[in-house]
Amino acid sequence: AQKVTQAQTEISVVEKEDVTLDCVYETRDTTYYLFWYKQPPSGELVFLIRRNSFDEQNEISGRYSWNFQKSTSSFNFTITASQVVDSAVYFCALNGGSSNTGKLIFGQGTTLQVKP
Amino acid sequence: DTGVSQDPRHKITKRGQNVTFRCDPISEHNRLYWYRQTLGQGPEFLTYFQNEAQLEKSRLLSDRFSAERPKGSFSTLEIQRTEQGDSAMYLCASSSTGAGEEAFFGQGTRLTVV
Description:
The complex is a heterodimer. Chain A is built from no helices and twelve strands.
């Protein structure tokens, strides 16, 4: 079975602090894809990043960075110098490549509150 | 194209009534998905279409739920004889065909059954 666990339910930081959101996944597929989505109060899920299981290179995009480690089945997300606009619910999701349906298995989400 | 759009944004209905939601995907996307999200939870997969064919349905999709995608364009999700447990946000997403393609989500329809 496939599963995504985001153990942190809520995180509160003060603006300009760095924050890391944890994601641990389970899958038996050898080919799979991992995603992070952001859900602001408006409700629309916004795509942030995708990684495939063969690409363990960490990625940095502006203030965002992602650390993918197959050895620990983790795909963590760090926001550097957080801003109030980063406040949202963040979801990690898994797509098992063997099914090739594009169906996503989501974690329960981490609510990030950035205080001014 | 302005993205995935869903209608209505909010729906309040009495228990036992039928409701229908509409989703218009990004026009060039072959795949369309419905998810349900309850408060404090991540979205849960309901069903998936590739063009007009419904290829997978979750066990969450009881007999009271039906989805269609005529002509492979927009999709509708109907819930018959609504129950209070159906209250949730219903999210639609679309994507291109291909392994690992990112899905683009609409803003959802929030259903409240009273």
